[in-house]
Write the structure tokens for this entry.
Amino acid sequence: MIDPVSRCGFAALIGAPNAGKSTLVNALVGSKVSIVTHKVQTTRFPIRGVMIEENSQVILVDTPGVFTPKRRLDRAMVRAAWQGAEEADKIVHLVDAAAWYRAHQPKLARPQDNLAKADVATIVAELTKLGQKSILVLNKIDLLEKENLLEQAEKFNKIGIYSDILMLSATKGSGLKGLRTMLAEQAPVGPWLYPKDQVADLPMRLLAAEVTREKLMLRVHEELPYSASVTTESWETKKDGSVVIRQIIFVERDSQRKIVLGKNGKVIKAIGQASRQDLMQIMEQTVHLFLHVKVANWSQDRERYTEFGLDFE
């Protein structure tokens, strides 16, 4: 019999690249379930984080950033983002308020701000077509004056596609309680889908690969294209409880392989150490991590798309 006070639902976070979706999901869940880097389009496939608030369980779907796709991978990511939104009980549209403000100030606007502005317009148009009221979240409010935020909120409110407008800073933690409460209260009545102690719906092999990709991008984000990828090749649990993980870092050119390796293997060693530390904290067991770099055009490999749950066609 369903407990009438028990609630459970899906909330999809959608927004332009670098709006802060992954940071917000991690903050709401209270644990690391999505990787965060300096690179745009870091999230490549929907990742589910489980948020518990009072008697509600909300499955947060961190979707890839919505932008104008140019390549096969881009198109697959954007399709995955909208699919995640359409299947959710609630859509949360996250906007980088600081970038949106700068984009409307000719003297302050940067190229990436103008791109973000265009992406926001695309998302608004698609949300209008869906005909489903969404929650608008203006993120990074710590970088703007209050009057500028209120002006933004008024402009978005006039569009007529938002049921609520919230302002917060995912990195600072301000405003998170309001969003947590709102999502919990608006979740449909029903039984929980996941155990109370589960924070993500993501296979550990895939999560481990994502953690290493995060460390890779943080280390060489200026030299390496975002299209670099990591896959977990093997996973072995030893008798002593430790885990041996072997992973492949895919790059598209030999020059990129040299960047990842670094002089005398210094860079890849640092990436491996950082990833191993995170994995041991997440898994709460000893991890032995071995990394190998391979040159391959993985973005045209159907198997890699299947691994990520993306549509290759």
In short: The beta strands are 7-15, 47-53, 56-62, 90-96, 134-139, 162-167, 200-201, 229-237, 243-251, 287-295. Residues 203-308 form a domain with the GMP Synthetase; Chain A, domain 3 fold (CATH 3.30.300.20). Residues 111-130 form the longest helix (20 residues). Residues 25 and 69 are 24 Å apart (CA to CA).
